[in-house]
Each structure stands twice: as structure tokens, then as C-alpha cells.
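Progress narrative, work stream C.
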Amino acid sequence: MDAPRNPGGAGAGPGIDLITLIVTDYDEAIRFYTEVLGFALADDRPATTTDGRPKRWVVLRPPRGGAGLLLAKADGPDQQQAVGRQFAGRVGLFLRVPDFDAAYRRLLDNAVPIVRPPRDEPYGWVAVFADIAGNHWDLLGPAGPA
């Protein structure tokens, strides 16, 4: 039997490229994720649904790399009900930042809802916040003084 081929090169394997977040408004979500959380708008172009209706293809990327966010405008009542509840009230997304204090201050300055205040854990500082839709995120910073 031949050895398995790895066309991606040594050590290559799967990776998560995009995570879909259902939103009610593209532009409000773009503003939140870029201006408050610091993501970069990587793509924003017209597209169509599978049945030919217009939509947008909107991708945001974190500046330090990692999986991007694909914003999908809610289409119909089932999707509208999922806005802000994609993780059933649990933390579903984790934003690691190099400067926890500065990132936390930015959340407060922008009136972002804080679900759980900062606490020191063995893996670093963590606070839970809700994004523009209500999805819960962990804000994660390095261990040490905050």
C-alpha cells in the first residue's frame, strides 16, 4: 500500500477558515466587529442566495490571524430567532487579546454588555461580553496583573 499523500505539505491539516454569525443588519455588525472588536473587513461583495435573491458576502478577519467571521443576514423566521442565540446562551466565541485592560476598556467605552466581569484564571484574564446580536464571547488576556 502506498503511503498517504499530503498535497498541503508536511504538517498540513484541516483548519477552520470561517465561522458564520447570523445578524440582523450587515452594516451595524460590520461597525461593531471592526470598530469595537478590532476585526478587519476582508470582503464585502454582492452575492445571491441559492434561490437567486440578493445578499452580501461579508467576511471579517482578526488582525492576529485565525478563523474569520462570515456575517449572514437572517433570512426568515427560523434564522431571525437564532440571532444572538447561536450558542444557546453559552459562550461560543473566544477573543484572545494581548492587552486585556485596553480591550476591556474599549468594551466599556462602547457600552458593550458585560455578562460576567473580569476574573483571573490559571490560563489568563477572562470576562464574558455579549456582541451586537447578543452572542456571548470570552475576552481572554494573558495571565498576570490586570
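Work stream C, second folded protein:
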Amino acid sequence: MLLLSIDTSIRGCSVAVHENSTLLANYDLHTDRSSSSMLTTLMETAVKHAGFTLNDLDAIAVAKGPGSYTGLRVGVSSAKGLCYALDKPMIAINTLEAMALQLNAFYPGHLLCPMIDARRMEVYAAVLDAENNFVQQTQAIIMDEHSFQDLLLKHRIVFFGDGAVKCQQLLGTHPNAIFPKKESYPSAITVGELAAKAFQNEHFEDVATFEPYYLKDFMSPPSKKVRSLA
């Protein structure tokens, strides 16, 4: 099984190539912009670096969200385009589930709460256990001092991701709240690890109808132009 994975959930791009769950190549580009041209270059380079061509792929996996509206649109559109062009199946992976997989081996017995910034005091978050099972499903949360209090009474929780800064301002003094110093970003590597299992179980998406998991409607900022009077 040869799998190309894509994650554009936040700024920048991440791609990875796995063969039978073994990582062959990975490229990450952290920038304030996500574009299809950057992603296309990274995908082609990663597959070539792994010693294959795009036609050799068995499936394409993509992080479905939540995350940046623009980033998710770029990633899913690129994955769909490849699937159509190559006639390959598509696998979609929850971004937060893939983020949790990055840290669960380092915090046995802890709960993991990956967070993605969603502007102002809102975050996209989920809570998973050390086996990567959901304890609290993915949702948009407006953070306040009462957030996660019920879980924090009984569990130590690791908060991480670019949305965790907001959480640390409110919960940083709680004895059961842990905030790693090293920043964590969504990665195509763990998207690929989860996608390898999904491939074995034939958990494929309908390429024609699939949409990113935006979690909430896109809100465009108000125009700064002054409307002329009629």
C-alpha cells in the first residue's frame, strides 16, 4: 500500500508518503499562506523523493478539518483533483484526531486536547485518551474559566496546538492542566498513520460529494469600503 497524505488545516502545507505504514518522505511548509501551487510542488517532490510516481499511489488521504476555511478548501480540492485524475480512492481524517496521535505516546494515562485557533476566544477542540479514542467529540468552544472543569477534576489533560495559548491564559494555573513548551502543528505524518488503518478497512469517501469538515460557517470580514449613497 502506497499512500500520499495531505494536511492544510492551518497555515502552510504538510505532505507525507507512507508504504505499508512506513514513512518514506515528509515535507512541511509553515507559512501564513496556503496555496494549491505550493501544495502541488510538495506532493510531487515527496512522491519523487520516496522513489515513486503519482501513478504508483494506492490512495490519497487528506485532513478533513476542522481548521482554516481556506486551508481546508485547498487541501480537499487538491486531494479530489488527484483522485479524479489518477482514479484512486480518497480517505479523510479528522485533523484533531491526527494531532492527538503525535503526543499520546509521550503522555500515558493523560487525556489529550488538541486545539486549533478559531479567532477571538474560540477554538476547535476535542479530547482523546491515550489510545486515541474520543472522550469529547470535536466542537467549537468559546473559552472561559469554566471550560473543561468537569474533566480536569478527575484527569490530567494536555492542551496543545495553536489554540492552546488562549486556554493557557485561563487554565494555566490548574494543577491538572498541562501545556507543553514545544509547539505542535497538524502533520500529514499522523494523517497517514490513521489513513493506513482506514485503507485496510476500506473507509473511503465519495469523492464527488465530499466536503471539508468546516465545523462552522465561514464568516467573511466586513468590507472596509464606504458604500456610496444612492
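The helical segments are 36-49, 69-86, 95-103, 149-152, 164-171, 188-200. No further action is required on this item.
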